[in-house]
Amino acid sequence: TLRETLKENAGLAPKVIDALCDALIQYDKVQAALNEFDSLSMSEETSFQMNLGLPMGLRLDDDTLVVLSVEAGGQAEASGVPVGCRVLAVGGETVTIVEDAIA
What we know:
The protein has helices spanning 2-9, 14-41, 75-79, 98-102; strands at 58-60, 67-70, 89-90, 93-94. By secondary structure, it is mainly α. The strands form 2 sheets. The protein has a two-stranded antiparallel sheet with strand order 1-2. Helix 1 (2-9) runs antiparallel to helix 2 (14-41). The radius of gyration is 21 Å and the shape is rod-shaped. The model has no long low-confidence stretch (mean pLDDT 81).
């Protein structure tokens, strides 16, 4: 195993090796979850109609434009916007940052 190879050849303290191996295991789990999310999120594109002159009733991640939350009773909820979807365009214009999406 990687742990045994590092113990034999790396010259690192056992606690450091254990920490590295544990971090790699966690990284693999996170990467697998992200890959699953990407395959789900890319599987379908849906359009939602909202009045951009009114509050949308959702919170976006600043970096990914993924919907983090939808306010009860807001436009996003009424339009069927699910948490976890990614904003790709607003008014037919492709967006890549939050400022584009809310401008």
